[in-house]
Amino acid sequence: MRHVFLFPFSSAILYLSVICLSVVVLPQGKANGQDLNVAASDTVSVSLSEFLSIAAEHSNELRARKQSVELARNRNQEARNSRIVPNFTLTTAHGLIPGVRSRDGADFPSSQLYLDPSLRNDWEDWAFFNQFEITALQPVYTWGAIRNAIKASQAGINVSLFEYQAQEQEVKLQLFQLWQGKLLAMELERLTVEAERTIELAERELIKLLDEGSDEIDDADFYQFEIFKFEFQAQQEEVRRNIAFLERAWAIALGSRETGIVYVPEDRFLDPIDKELDTLDSYVMQAMQARPEVLQIESVRDAAGFGLEAQRAQRFPALFLGATYRYAYAPNRPRQRNPFISNPANTESLTVGLGLRQNLNFFQLQNRTERSQLQFRQASYALDAVRDGIELDVSDKYKDVRVASKRLSTIEGALDVSRNWLRQEQLDYDIGFGDIPNLIDAFTKNLELEAQQKQYIHDFNVRLARLLNAGGFRLDQIFTN
């Protein structure tokens, strides 16, 4: 007996472990706002679309990113509100105030007390004093400062939104890998179950031949088979352990740990994704137009440009319409009607007019303008850098898919030969001309190639998903339609 081993199972199991540990799994909750009222023992089959949707809904990381979008919208609304009376304040004052009396006993009318030179505070006459002052300032012309500030805040919304979309796509890519890892584990489990039955039959045949004293095998063949069987049992246990680990990862990702729901893939078989590859240039072009990272940096550059224009407008005087209404009342202090005389304790006035506001610290204004220019240039350079990085990233992912596709086609050819070999050995053995060691070698090689094929299918699917993600395609729209 020759070359009995199951190395591909070990590499596939290791690959599954790396996938599971790298996937972002998220706490439980509700799926798409729908309460999952099912019994704790229920098993629910989910499609890939449902799996991505439920898991993304439970992602606390995505929830946090979404709050950044809401904060940006709040800042934008604040900027828009600055167009209408941005300065509108009410100031009040309340307290005790003494009255007034003439020290010489002069008898002046209450509206002419200011003419009495002997008028003094009356410390024996106290009353409550109340004052209200409302000030409003409405910009009329600001040289585009407010308009550009609003545009900058709108670009800030886009920055946060594209950042959220980039994170969402990354999470869904990791979830897709978790989905593929589950299918790979299920395929390996099926292979071990089928192989276990065949191994039991082969063992009985070997023992039977040894007992009969057949010269087809010797003790060395039997010992090699026993070693193979123990190695297979160890790897079989690894498959079971990884199945349990993946089930736990799925439960965490889908938020089903408390409900007790067991989610399983709707499609239980791992098949290569049937999607024809386009040219590398087409993926690069699509990435430049649709990748959230590119759109995010473009929005950063737009925000910096609008901020620069708003800062330049600060160098010119802004025209404002201002209004101030003031009312004060103290019952022990008479109001003076003379327009040139003011009694601050008992008065009412309204002032309306146009005015200019100008920051006279021109050196500070120049520094701020230069800083805005630097920020705009920084965003432009960052955009070029992101585009260069994306082109390299897409090229690398495209190369990986081509390599994975070639490996898959090669292993499928080898597997066809292996199946023919195994079928021939089985026929020869059934009609009495076969060699049991050759039959076991054929079975072992076929099992090895079956495991390699499943791993290569998984590898191709994951690499294709990475390429599409790098190209700016939404995985939930491609693989779930």
Automatic annotation (TrEMBL):
UniProt keywords, alphabetically: Cell outer membrane, Coiled coil, Membrane, Transmembrane, Transmembrane beta strand, Transport
One MF term in the entry's GO annotations: porin activity
Keyword Coiled coil: yes
Primary location group: membrane
Coiled-coil region list: 185-212
Cell location: Cell outer membrane
Record-linked Pfam families: OEP (PF02321)
Tree of life domain: Bacteria
Family per record: Belongs to the outer membrane factor (OMF) (TC 1.B.17) family.
PANTHER family assigned to the protein according to its UniProt record, in alphabetical order: MEMBRANE EFFLUX PROTEIN, PUTATIVE-RELATED, OUTER MEMBRANE PROTEIN TOLC
Protein name per Swiss-Prot or TrEMBL: Outer membrane protein TolC
Taxonomic lineage: Bacteria, Pseudomonadati, Balneolota, Balneolia, Balneolales
